[in-house]
Structures are given as C-alpha cells and as structure tokens.
Backbone:
C-alpha cells in the first residue's frame, strides 16, 4: 500500500475518531455519507478503502492495539488489568471507549477485534512456554475470555476491585493453573 493510500485511510479513521470523541456521536449513528463530509472525500473514495463503516472501525481498532502490543507480552499475560489501565489511562482510546460504551454496535466490534488479536498473541506466547502441556489455542481462548469475564463481573460489583486485585485474582484462577512452577 502506498504512503498516500495509507495516509488517506488514516485521515478517514481520524475523522471517525473526531466524530466519536469531539462531537460524541455514537458509532451506530454515524453514516458513511456524513463521514465522507467530515473526511472531505467522495463516497466512492471511502469505498475504495473500506467496505463499510464496520471495516473502518476494525481498521481503527488495529491502530489502537499497535502501541499496546509494544508492551512486554509476559507482563500482559500475567497482569492484563494493570497493563491495559497503564497504557490506556489518558489516551484517546480510553475516551472513545468511554463515550461509545453504551453503543452496542461499537462494543461488539471493539470486543470481537480485541479478543481476536489478544487470542492470537497469547497463543503465540504460549507456544514459547515448554511447561504448558495443554492445547495452546484452547488456553489462549480461556485466558482472554477470562479477562473479559472478570472485567464484566467487576463492573457489576457495588465496590469494584482495583486492577491490582483483579490481576491477583486472575493469576490465581487462570495463570497459575496454566504455568506449572
């Protein structure tokens, strides 16, 4: 992909970000026509790069994940809650997620894309650990789904646990049984 094409993809993505953060427009309410106006592009140009607005959001989620994946995998494997919080603490990603948290369409795409990338990465990491003697793809799914389950559970608690407490619970319930000492 040429620099110009990559740049235009980013321009379109940044326009969607501005709509969702600055204008607080829910993703499900964004139309491709409106997005094209914000991006100063023709509708046909949008479709040269993305099949629909879901594909654009998926592209954006991958952009969100790139810097996060530069953090050491071993700590993300052991302390997923603290690492996510530390990375996203004051980021544009956090703002988008908070603003869009009540939009089911946004949440579904964000969750599915995040899980997909995280499962692939944890699966690759588990392949490097000799002491793990179970199906590594199953364990990767279990690992990531446990993170999402704990997070959902914690959000429903009258007094939520801290990220440190969540990580300790996660270690006891998920990591310790996987990694034999």
Residues:
């Amino acid at each position: 992909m040429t620099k110009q094409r990559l740049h235009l993809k980013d321009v379109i993505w940044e326009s969607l970000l501005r709509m969702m953060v600055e204008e607080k427009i829910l993703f499900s309410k964004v139309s491709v026509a409106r997005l094209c106006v914000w991006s100063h592009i023709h509708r046909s140009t949008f479709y040269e790069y993305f099949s629909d607005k879901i594909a654009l959001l998926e592209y954006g989620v991958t952009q969100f994940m790139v810097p996060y994946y530069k953090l050491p995998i071993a700590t993300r494997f052991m302390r997923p809650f603290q690492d996510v919080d530390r990375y996203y603490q004051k980021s544009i990603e956090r703002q988008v997620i908070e603003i869009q948290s009540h939009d089911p369409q946004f949440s579904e795409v964000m969750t599915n894309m995040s899980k997909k990338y995280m499962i692939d990465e944890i699966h690759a990491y588990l392949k490097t650990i000799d002491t793990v003697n179970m199906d590594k793809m199953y364990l990767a799914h279990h690992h990531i789904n446990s993170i999402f389950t704990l997070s959902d559970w914690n959000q429903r608690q009258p007094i939520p646990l801290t990220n440190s407490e969540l990580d300790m619970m996660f270690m006891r319930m998920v990591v310790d049984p996987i990694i034999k000492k």
